[in-house]
Design a protein that fits this description.
Elements (H helix, E strand, L loop, with lengths): L1 H18 L39 H9 L10
Length: about 80
Amino acid sequence: MVLRIIGLGLIGFVGYKFLRPKPHRVNAAYAPDQPHNSLTDVRDAGPQAMRDPPTEWTETDEDLDESFPASDPPGGY
């Protein structure tokens, strides 16, 4: 009898873990005012669109950030 109760509790716990709604994940790359979703998961270029902007931002950083996710390197080299 005790084993049945433990087994039912274990089944309930596992079911709860797998069937509960998942929390909404927020992408860490986006600033709070930047719209994003899972279909177009590319943020705007520039430090103003970052959640944690860098302390130093150079023209090379800007070129690299604007070219992402393209496979070609930026033209500023």
